[in-house]
Design a protein that fits this description.
By secondary structure, the chain is mainly alpha-helical. It is built from 14 helices and five strands. About 50% of the residues lie in helices and about 10% in strands. β4, α4 and β5 form a beta-alpha-beta unit. The longest helix has 22 residues. It starts with a helix and ends with a helix.
Length: about 300
């Protein structure tokens, strides 16, 4: 929700270009393509292709006039004419010279080879103090930490981070009323169900929007469980150690997460504080109420009971 607010805010600002990239795609090529489509970018874009069937002397390339310059090269000893990094950097500088700033948004970021390459290029680019390109991304805590372990992404470690706490239940209910046209009573029920978890809020909203006329709220729950298990909870669970999983199971077996009750279920209660702190660092448990540990992920208990008990 906060991510969308940021993106929408800057989309309406003068002299800002906002590009939202897919976490699963090739962000370098996509960004080059998007910037190249801007009207003020020089139309004489240089493109490069390697054609092994052509007989062209590398020392005597002839370029004709026109909107596009195409260079064809067949020599095997020197094919490094095109660099995506150089192209992207050049485009960003051209955008900045025209007085524009760039905001790049990536929602639900995760570590892929293409994403690491993009972030590496971006990190090198922002070393130039004149470069006005900014990045905002969201992701699970584990996925964010994955990038911080990359030795060539030191800028990621130094970047400002904000932990998004539980979404405001009143705002969730208002959005459900506004976007889905449900009654206030139904919106409150849905807001209580997702319990402030941002991804659950999106999943339930999408399911409700696409539901059939004869489907009730209860009919959506199995679909909700399946999506949450595949896209979120399985990833969360696989990131836990054996000790952490054991403590989570103990917490879920208690009625209200009272610490004294949790410890009674543990094989080694003396390890409670250490493991609890690790789960807190992974943002999985809530300890706001003294003497209690709770997990607020909607239907996470059902997921663990069904698949992990």
């Amino acid at each position: 929700m906060e991510y969308r607010k940021i993106i929408d805010e800057f989309k309406h600002k003068d002299k800002w270009l906002v590009y939202t990239l897919s976490a699963a795609g090739n962000p370098v090529d996509t960004l080059i393509s998007l910037i190249s489509k801007e009207k003020f970018i020089d139309a004489k874009t240089h493109s490069m292709s390697i054609n092994t069937g052509a007989e062209v002397d590398a020392k005597g390339l002839v370029v004709g006039g026109g909107a596009s310059v195409s260079i064809t090269k067949s020599s095997m000893d020197n094919v490094n004419y095109y660099s995506a990094e150089a192209e992207l950097t050049s485009l960003v500088r051209e955008v900045n010279r025209e007085g524009y700033r760039i905001l790049i948004g990536i929602d639900d970021i995760s570590k892929t080879d293409d994403m690491v390459k993009f972030l590496s290029i971006y990190g090198a680019m922002i070393l130039d103090t004149d470069t006005k390109a900014y990045l905002v991304c969201t992701g699970l805590n584990k996925n964010i930490e994955d990038f911080k372990s990359e030795s060539n992404l030191t800028f990621f470690k130094r970047s400002d981070t904000a932990e998004i706490r539980e979404l405001d239940r009143f705002e969730i209910a208002d959005k459900y009323c506004e976007l889905l046209g449900v009654t206030q009573e139904a919106a409150v029920k849905m807001a209580r169900f997702v319990n402030g978890y941002a991804y659950a809020y999106q999943v339930l909203g999408t399911l409700y929007f696409n539901k059939k006329d004869n489907e009730e709220f209860e009919d959506l729950v199995p679909k909700f469980d399946k999506i949450m298990a595949q896209d979120s909870y399985d990833l969360i669970w696989s990131s836990l150690t054996g000790e952490e999983k054991a403590l989570v199971k103990c917490i879920l077996q208690t009625e209200d997460g009272k610490v004294s009750d949790v410890k009674k279920l543990m094989n080694n209660p003396s390890n409670f504080s250490t493991i609890r702190n690790r789960l807190m660092n992974k943002h999985l448990i809530n300890t706001d109420e003294r003497g209690y540990v709770t997990i607020h992920l909607p239907r996470f208990k059902e997921f663990v009971t069904m698949w992990e008990m």
